[in-house]
Amino acid sequence: MKKLLFLITMLLLSVATFAGDFDIVGTWYEYEWDIESLDGIWIFKSDKTGTCEEFHKGVSEGVGNFKYDFNASTNVLTVWNEGEEDDPVVFPIRIDSPTQFTYSEGRESLVWIKQEQSSGAVSHAISPKAASFKLASSKDGLTYYFAYDDQDSYSNFNIKSDKEAYEVNLSYDASKILIQYFQYGALVTSEMTLKGDHVVKEVVSIANDNQTTVFNTIDYTYDVNNQLVKVVTKSDFDPSASNEINISWENGNIKSANISGSVITSNVEFDYYTDNEDQSLVNAFSGSVAAIFDETEVVTFAPLFYCANYFGASCKNLTKSVKRSGSNAKEGSFNKTINLSYEYESNGLVKQCNYGNKIHQYSWVSGSDIAPQVWKSLSNETVFSLDGRHNTTIQRGLNIVRRSDGTVVKILK
Known about the structure:
Helices cover 10% and strands 54% of the residues. The chain has helices spanning 2-21, 120-123, 281-285, 288-294, 302-306, and strands at residues 26-32, 38-44, 49-56, 59-71, 76-81, 89-97, 100-105, 108-114, 130-135, 143-148, 154-160, 165-172, 176-183, 186-195, 198-208, 211-222, 228-234, 243-250, 253-261, 264-277, 317-328, 332-344, 350-355, 358-364, 382-385, 390-391, 398-402, 408-412. It has a 16-stranded antiparallel beta barrel with strand order 9-10-11-12-13-14-15-16-17-18-19-20-21-22-23-24. It has an 8-stranded antiparallel β-barrel with strand order 1-2-3-4-5-6-7-8.
């Protein structure tokens, strides 16, 4: 008995020692107890907000925002997920070391391991990876073909049409992304300046005959919730490329963008298919990000890198409609709504977006066979609690979900 009491005392002392050195702020990788594969990347910020990126078999299932509180005296972590603020998740955790903590429920347990560096290489991996994007409604068959490196980042891509073809080369370092290609004998360069994991500035220039000209510059601003909220574009050559764009968010999606400049005054509003979550390239190329920049004549590569988390939080859902109102030099006054619909492959990935009278077609790299998560439509899913009870919806805590294809995943809500 004395030996047992001694062991308990030593355990409590060790936990107390760890607790004194423990800091929840930082990036944590979440695993199941066997630590066979990454289940999530949690980022706890000092302002009591954070993000969680969930994975299934190495494929990202999207990034969610939350607010949190950690009580260091009781070791209780409380998380308020975005959109569910009145129903917090409470984790009584065990601090195993300054860089590890555990949450247990019944016989199941989850382990979080703190990372010394930021989640850069992992969080900027693109998943699922698009093999190509084709503007099928264009007269010249404009198509992008994508290639990836061993970190699942873009290594380069080719842009082809019936009239021309050129290769776009990319290079990365801690402070910038450099994008370059030759077109009509001129070298086009986009240099994206990084601050942490965010692109804060983009400069697009054209070099020809030993002369370099800056076509436009773009400054990006983010709020405390990691959301892109302001874009300022400037160009000495095209007045349509000089604007201020203010962006508002609602329920994890870009709700509207107000664009003002010398020749453009435009408001763009978005609606979404809220039963489907998708943060792939489709979300940008056929979504709000590309639609916002399409209002201007600015040259930018932002939509390409949006799904790689270089521009803060991604929209959660696929775009359902785009409402445009305002005026510009080309159209005069306008007030129109564009509706979007999607066609899917058997695995749930988008193969075509019908964007008004435009057609966007996507193909995917072999192995990108797990669609982004669709938890709000569970008609073909079977959900069980850990005690074996069958549920019709995802419940608080750990859930066992048997998908229609026979695979089984564990979901923590």
